[in-house]
């Protein structure tokens, strides 16, 4: 046992020296994670967009239309940048992307409302960007509903109902939609937790992969194998132990300091979060060793892992829901550790889930980690044998 | 035979083609990777819209009216009731187990309260940790509730002898007619793929182009290149650039003429103009990468710079999260990437079918990513050629 620890220690020291001498790995594992954690996430420091520029075409020019424009402009999501008399100028602004939506109030709107005829307001949204168009839609509907409800209430009062009865009649059944967990429904609270995981995962894979490819580039695998007493297990674990410890420290730093700076919630069981994070780090280490072992140049393994990180994140179901993806991708995605991790991570941190809630993902991550470990050891054993022969 | 013509540009071009042909990793990066990656990204969003979001219902009323409400939920198509639960607490359990995105709570005595003229509130718990499903649920749950409430009110008003049309005008005095321009079905395929693919394409072009000149330094072949170019920087630049640009331009053409039609990504704009702006984007990315390549000798460091610029490109481009909502410093970073300027111009031309000149600002800014690097590249190459000449003269 003592010999085993001594051997691991020797390989560990060798790895420290390798990182110390290699500025590329040094940058990737010691500077990039911290820089990205603050730089990426501070993008969403405002958490949500406000005051999206819109144009209104006021063909009515009445008290109602002026009130409507005023309310729309004072809504936190929209800002009425232009008021036009006819539609062409407004569409010109939409086409030039100066405004993101055009709201049209047709002639005689106020008159029709007084005659209880009902009116239609046209909301033309540029849906090439969903977040923006969704927010304009919300604002326009909020304003229209508030106008509609006050007109309805006035009507019911004029036909003999008292104020309280009229209020009930305006909306006999209300839909009280309550946002859960991301209470302010902000883009920042939605994306920041996922980005933190992406940064952790990406930089760990880059660093570990660089280290393995460097061994191949410099043809030093034989030396490593010999130092470990020709033991593939010691070679791989001795190399990986520094990355494991470093990225576990990063993870804890992210979950405490970075979460706190960017006001990200951490409601759930910390122990379960740490346990699944350990599994993510372990599986990512084996995954990157396995992939990078196929490249003889550092630069190529870095390129390949760069292009794998976006698809791995996108297929995890974190952004676009898993059940809406093609079936085959759903199966492929379940074989990647980030999928169960992100699933469990978001429920622990944002929803307060505990052990019982994440057990299926925990077992799934264990299976993935063990499978990757076995494949990595087989592959590395083959490479070591090849390097000495 | 071509080489015998002894035209420096042609000689450099032939030399570069041979280098490319012998570089399997480069070929993998610029030919194989785009095919696999772009097909994969498009395939993720193949189904386009978010459908059948799993939801649960807690119906404590068990009336015909509450059943009608449940039927309305399923009729949206965006939501699917996966089970009925017995209490509100179980809705929370379903959330924690990650099985559902929303829970509808229909209170006891809903039907009888409505008949008595009491206002009833149906609570919809919306899991907004994912804003894509959260926004869909918010939109459709609000519509369902308004429709349901309208139906109750319509019955009440018509029972008092008010005609259907008049009743509808009373129920909904201010209607909103939403025209979702350019992507009426809210398809994520039409929305995300045309943003993701250029971001990945920029990364591929830059990661490959940052290695074009510094490989000559690391392999000690710079003097050979200068000799082939007859000590002239222009043939050196043109001859080396053409083969790479041809590959990228073919990829660009494939994106617009094969990939997008294959996945049914709808366009209402001019294909020719869309291709022109995409080609300009290719040139912008290529020459920006090439500039890094002449300035930085170390291949690995050049790759890291390209990574630093490109890994956040998609999220910083303003395509998903708008530029005006970002802090100033992030805005400046976003402006330093071709993708930011390309996306606005491309959306205008490809999806919004605006006249080509409406993208003038974007084209102008993209052209700066071509001309500024070109000046720097030529200047650095000129210095390097001069130094090389000096060394040769001294020897």
Explain how this protein is built.
- The complex is a heterodimer of chains A (389) and B (395).
- Chain A has helices at 2-21, 23-42, 63-74, 87-95, 109-114, 130-158, 163-170, 187-217, 221-227, 232-261, 270-292, 298-314, 327-334, 338-351, 355-388; strands at residues 52-58, 78-84, 101-105, 119-126, 173-180.
- Chain A is α/β, with parallel strands linked by helices.
- The two termini of chain A are 29 Å apart.
- The mean pLDDT of chain A is 92.
- By secondary structure, chain B is α/β, with parallel strands linked by helices.
- Chain B has 2 domains: 3-46 and 187-394; 53-171, 3-Layer(aba) Sandwich (abc type-2 transporter like fold), CATH 3.40.1710.
- Chain B has 17 helices and 5 strands.
- Chains A and B meet through helix 2, strand 4, helix 6, helix 7 and strand 5 of A and helix 2, strand 4, helix 6, helix 7 and strand 5 of B.
- Strand 5 (173-180) of chain A pairs parallel with strand 4 of chain B.
Provide tags for this entry.
heterodimer; A: 389 residues; alpha/beta; abc type-2 transporter like fold; 2 domains; 5 strands; B: 395 residues; 4-stranded mixed beta sheet; elongated
Rg of chain A (C-alpha, Å): 29 Å
Helix content of chain B: 55-70%
Major beta sheet, strand line-up of chain B: 2-1-3-4
Coarse structural class of chain B: alpha/beta
Largest sheet of chain A: 4 strands, mixed
Biggest beta-sheet profile of chain B: 4 strands, mixed
N-to-C series of helices and strands of chain A = HHEHEHEHEHHEHHHHHHHH
Greatest interface: A-B, 108 and 112 residues
Strand content of chain B: 5-15%
- Percentage beta strand of chain A: 5-15%
The strand line-up of the biggest sheet of chain A is 2-1-3-4
Separation of the first and last Cα atoms of chain A: 29 Å
First-to-last CA distance of chain B: 33 Å
Indicate the low-confidence ranges of chain A by residue numbers: none
Number of DSSP-assigned strands of chain A: 5
**Count of beta strands of chain B:** 5
**What characteristic shape of chain B results from the CA principal axes?**
elongated
Question: What is the residue-mean pLDDT of chain B, rounded to a whole number?
Answer: 92
Using only C-alpha atoms, the radius of gyration of chain B works out to 30 Å
Helix coverage percent of chain A: 55-70%
């Amino acid at each position: 046992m003592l010999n085993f620890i001594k051997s691991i220690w020797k390989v560990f020291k060798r790895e420290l020296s390798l990182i110390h001498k290699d500025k590329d790995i040094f940058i990737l594992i010691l500077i990039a994670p911290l820089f990205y954690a603050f730089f990426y996430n501070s993008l969403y420091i405002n958490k949500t967009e406000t005051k999206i520029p819109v144009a209104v075409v006021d063909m009515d020019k009445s008290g109602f239309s002026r009130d409507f424009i005023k309310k729309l402009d004072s809504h936190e999501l929209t800002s009425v940048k232009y008021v036009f008399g006819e539609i062409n100028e407004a569409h010109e602004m939409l086409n030039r992307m100066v405004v993101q939506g055009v709201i049209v109030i047709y002639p005689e709107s106020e008159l029709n409302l007084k005659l209880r005829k009902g009116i239609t307001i046209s909301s033309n949204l540029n849906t090439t960007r969903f977040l923006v168009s969704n927010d304009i839609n919300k604002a326009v509907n909020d304003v229209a509903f508030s106008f509609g409800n006050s007109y309805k209430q006035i009507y019911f009062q004029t036909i003999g109902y008292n104020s309280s009865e009229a209020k009930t009649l305006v909306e006999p059944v209300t839909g009280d939609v309550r946002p859960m967990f991301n209470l302010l429904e902000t883009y920042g609270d939605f994306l920041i937790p996922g980005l933190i995981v992406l940064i952790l995962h990406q930089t760990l894979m880059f660093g570990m992969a660089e280290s393995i490819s460097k061994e191949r580039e410099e043809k030093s695998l034989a030396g490593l194998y010999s130092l470990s007493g020709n033991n593939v297990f010691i070679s791989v674990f001795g190399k990986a132990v520094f990355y494991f410890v470093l990225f576990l420290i990063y993870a804890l730093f992210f979950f405490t300091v970075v979460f706190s700076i960017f006001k990200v919630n951490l409601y759930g069981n910390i122990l379960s979060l740490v346990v699944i994070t350990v599994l993510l780090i372990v599986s990512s280490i084996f995954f990157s060793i396995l992939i990078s072992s196929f490249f003889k140049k550092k630069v190529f393994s870095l390129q390949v892992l760069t292009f794998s990180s976006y698809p791995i994140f996108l297929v995890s179901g974190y952004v676009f829901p898993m059940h809406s993806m093609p079936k085959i991708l759903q199966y492929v995605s379940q074989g990647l550790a980030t999928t169960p991790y992100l699933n469990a991570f978001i429920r622990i941190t944002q929803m307060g889930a505990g052990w019982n809630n994440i057990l299926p993902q925990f077992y799934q991550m264990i299976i993935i980690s063990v499978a990757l470990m076995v494949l990595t050891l087989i592959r590395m054993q083959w490479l070591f044998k090849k390097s000495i022969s | 035979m071509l080489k015998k013509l002894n035209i420096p540009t042609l000689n450099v071009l032939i030399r570069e083609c041979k280098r490319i042909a012998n570089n399997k990793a480069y070929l993998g990066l610029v030919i194989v990777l785009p095919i696999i990656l772009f097909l994969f990204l498009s395939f993720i969003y193949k189904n386009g819209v978010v459908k059948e979001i799993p939801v649960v219902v807690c119906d404590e009323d068990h009336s015909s009216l509450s059943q009608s409400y449940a039927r309305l939920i399923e009729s949206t198509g965006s939501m699917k009731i996966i089970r009925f639960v017995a209490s509100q607490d179980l809705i929370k359990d379903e959330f924690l187990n990650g099985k559902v995105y929303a829970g509808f709570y229909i209170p006891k005595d809903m039907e009888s309260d409505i008949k008595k003229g009491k206002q009833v509130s149906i609570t919809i718990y919306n899991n907004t940790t994912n804003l894509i499903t959260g926004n869909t649920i918010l939109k459709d749950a609000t519509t369902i509730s308004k429709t349901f409430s309208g139906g109750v009110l319509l019955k009440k008003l018509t029972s008092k002898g008010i005609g259907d049309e008049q009743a509808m005008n009373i129920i909904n005095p201010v209607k909103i007619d939403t025209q979702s321009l350019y992507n009426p079905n809210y398809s994520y395929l039409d929305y995300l793929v045309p943003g993701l693919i250029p971001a990945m394409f920029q990364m591929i072009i830059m990661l490959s182009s940052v290695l074009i000149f510094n490989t000559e330094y690391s392999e000690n072949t710079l003097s050979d290149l200068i000799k082939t170019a007859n000590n002239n920087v222009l043939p050196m630049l043109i001859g080396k650039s053409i083969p790479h640009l041809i590959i990228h331009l073919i990829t660009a053409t494939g994106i617009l003429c094969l990939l997008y039609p294959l996945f049914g990504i709808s366009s209402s704009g001019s294909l020719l103009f869309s291709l022109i702006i995409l080609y300009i984007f290719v040139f912008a990315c290529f020459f920006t990468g090439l500039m890094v390549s002449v300035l930085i000798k170390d291949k690995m460091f050049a790759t890291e710079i390209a990574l630093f610029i490109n890994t956040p490109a998609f999220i910083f481009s303003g395509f998903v999260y708008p530029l005006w909502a970002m802090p100033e410093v992030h805005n400046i970073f976003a402006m330093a990437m071709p993708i930011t300027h390309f996306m606005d111009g491309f959306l205008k031309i490809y999806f919004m079918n605006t006249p080509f000149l409406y993208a003038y600002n974007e084209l102008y800014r993209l052209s700066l990513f071509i001309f500024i690097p070109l000046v720097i590249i030529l200047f650095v190459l000129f210095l390097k050629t001069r130094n090389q000449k000096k060394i040769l003269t001294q020897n």
